[in-house]
Amino acid sequence: MFKEIKALIEKEITLELRQKYALNGMLLYIVSTVYVCYLSFRLKSNHIDKITWNTLFWIILLFTAMNAIAKSFTQERYGRLLYYYTLASPVGIILSKIVYNTLLMLVLSLAGFGVYAVIMGNPVGDMGLYLLSIVLGAVGFASTLTMIAGIASKAENSATLMAILSFPVILPMLLMLLKVSKNALDGLDRSSSWDEVMMLLAIDAIVLVLSVILFPFLWRS
């Protein structure tokens, strides 16, 4: 199983490197969005409060995740999916997709935070906790949206269906991420954020288990 997942992840990385415009497009999207936020807020007033700073950052990450992960299954042609069906197990397919999208989101999230902090300023009081919230957000977005992308790929209007299905799951996760990151911005004691951190870890674990259980039925269809 581990060899199978490793081979599938290597395949995903090879395809991504072969189509460099996809990753470069996501990075360009982050930089351009951050620059628009700079023109809209910081350039005019030369000041942006912490709540607005934090909210804008997570909105940028959320839409970056939607655009980056939506293509997980839609970019695969029917013939290639049939080929995977004969070679790999459905559990290996979904786990490899989740791991790859998690790595992709970590790269995009950390790069986006670096660009955002340079252009918009860095008011973070507890950098370690804020980076932890970014990692938890990247893992949560990747695991949740990957499974939803697999479901939506079976429908004709997959982009619309993915947005509708992801909203009830992403919203509570986003609210907890906003609270943890706001505590990090204010430099509060880390113990005040452990409940939200544990809840985020629980959501990630539940999504992962449900993906392993439910995706084989979706894959056979």
Automatic annotation (TrEMBL):
<comment type="similarity">
    <text>Belongs to the CcmB/CycW/HelB family.</text>
</comment>
<dbReference type="Pfam" id="PF03379">
    <property type="entry name" value="CcmB"/>
</dbReference>
<feature type="transmembrane region" description="Helical">
    <location>
        <begin position="106"/>
        <end position="122"/>
    </location>
</feature>
<feature type="transmembrane region" description="Helical">
    <location>
        <begin position="129"/>
        <end position="152"/>
    </location>
</feature>
<dbReference type="InterPro" id="IPR003544">
    <property type="entry name" value="Cyt_c_biogenesis_CcmB"/>
</dbReference>
<feature type="transmembrane region" description="Helical">
    <location>
        <begin position="199"/>
        <end position="219"/>
    </location>
</feature>
<keyword id="KW-1133">Transmembrane helix</keyword>
<protein>
    <submittedName>
        <fullName>Heme exporter protein CcmB</fullName>
    </submittedName>
</protein>
<feature type="transmembrane region" description="Helical">
    <location>
        <begin position="21"/>
        <end position="41"/>
    </location>
</feature>
<keyword id="KW-0813">Transport</keyword>
<keyword id="KW-0472">Membrane</keyword>
<keyword id="KW-0201">Cytochrome c-type biogenesis</keyword>
<feature type="transmembrane region" description="Helical">
    <location>
        <begin position="158"/>
        <end position="178"/>
    </location>
</feature>
<feature type="transmembrane region" description="Helical">
    <location>
        <begin position="53"/>
        <end position="70"/>
    </location>
</feature>
<keyword id="KW-0812">Transmembrane</keyword>
